[in-house]
């Protein structure tokens, strides 16, 4: 059987990339650094975002675009409570966000008064990998509770990343997790990928992650 790339799918992706490039330019024109955070459901995206806001909000202004498959405000409420403006974008069951959804979210954020925009993508290790949202960086959160074999089983999402956060490191004593096996799998797919082991529960590992993020925000201002 031969595999053909269906033209209509290609057109949709091309249209998405066009809007994504516009989004990136809008962020850049506002001197905002935008990061797209992807992960499996429950990996700890919101917990990491909330902790990051708590530790950085005195130094910079952060806005969040929260993607969810259903119209619930559970995550955006947590972000608002942490002290950052949050916009809820509902994908109506779709397994990923696209650039148009991000545009709608951007339009509701006070871009003139922000330094950093964080997008929390839909919890999924397959669909989000295909879609450029117009961020400046793609991040993946891989919690230790998911197991050390994920780079081998979900390779695509690891290929187009700029930064990787290994989260819930406080759980390592309680789960079977070989960080060397995990890192070997990542290295095969994305050599030299910058990786930060962190725990949103204990705060362990946040310092290097925040230093990296602050340097990106500073670069966006230059
Ligand atoms: N022990 C531990 N638990 C964590 C950590 N980070 C998050 N959790 C817990 O993991 C669960 C899921 O965390 P969330 O931050 O909601 O995960 P998420 O990726 O945003 O989930 P979805 O948005 O539903 O895909 C919650 O019960 C958190 O308290 C961590 O570093 N250590
Ligand atoms: Mg969440």
Write the layout of secondary structure elements.
Blueprint: H1 7-29, E1 33-39, H2 45-56, E2 62-68, H3 74-82, E3 86-90, H4 99-107, E4 116-123, E5 137-143, H5 150-153, H6 155-159, E6 163-167, H7 179-189, E7 194-197, H8 206-221
The structure holds guanosine-5'-triphosphate (GTP) and magnesium ion.
Please provide a written account of the structure.
By secondary structure, the protein is of the alpha/beta class. The protein has one domain: P-loop containing nucleotide triphosphate hydrolases (Rossmann fold), CATH 3.40.50.300. Helix content is 40%, strand content 19%. The chain has 8 helices and 7 strands; from the N terminus they run H-E-H-E-H-E-H-E-E-H-H-E-H-E-H. The protein has a 7-stranded parallel β-sheet, sandwiched between helices. Helix 1 (7-29) packs parallel to helix 4 and helix 2 runs parallel beside helix 3 (74-82). The radius of gyration is 17 Å and the shape is globular. The mean pLDDT is 94. It binds guanosine-5'-triphosphate and magnesium ion. Magnesium ion binds next to helix 2. Guanosine-5'-triphosphate binds next to helix 2.
């Amino acid at each position: 059987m031969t595999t053909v790339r269906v033209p209509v799918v290609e057109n949709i992706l091309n249209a998405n990339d066009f809007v994504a490039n516009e989004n990136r330019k809008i962020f850049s024109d506002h001197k905002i650094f935008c990061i797209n955070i992807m992960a499996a459901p429950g990996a700890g995206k919101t917990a990491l975002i909330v902790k990051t806001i708590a530790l950085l909000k005195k130094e910079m202004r952060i806005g969040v675009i929260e993607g969810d498959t259903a119209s619930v405000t559970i995550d955006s409420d947590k972000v608002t409570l942490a002290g950052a403006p949050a916009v809820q974008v509902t994908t109506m069951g779709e397994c990923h966000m696209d650039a148009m959804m991000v545009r709608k979210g951007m339009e509701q954020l006070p871009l003139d008064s922000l330094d950093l925009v964080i997008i929390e993508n839909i919890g999924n290790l397959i669909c989000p990998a295909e879609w450029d949202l117009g961020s400046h960086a793609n991040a993946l959160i891989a919690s230790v509770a998911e197991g050390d074999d994920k780079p081998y089983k979900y390779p695509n999402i690891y290929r187009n990343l700029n930064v990787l956060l290994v989260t819930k490191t406080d759980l390592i004593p309680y789960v079977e997790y070989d960080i060397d096996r995990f890192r070997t799998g990542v290295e095969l797919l994305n050599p030299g990928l910058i990786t930060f082991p962190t725990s949103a529960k204990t705060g362990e590992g946040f310092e290097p992650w925040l230093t990296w993020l602050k340097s990106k925000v500073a670069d966006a201002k230059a």
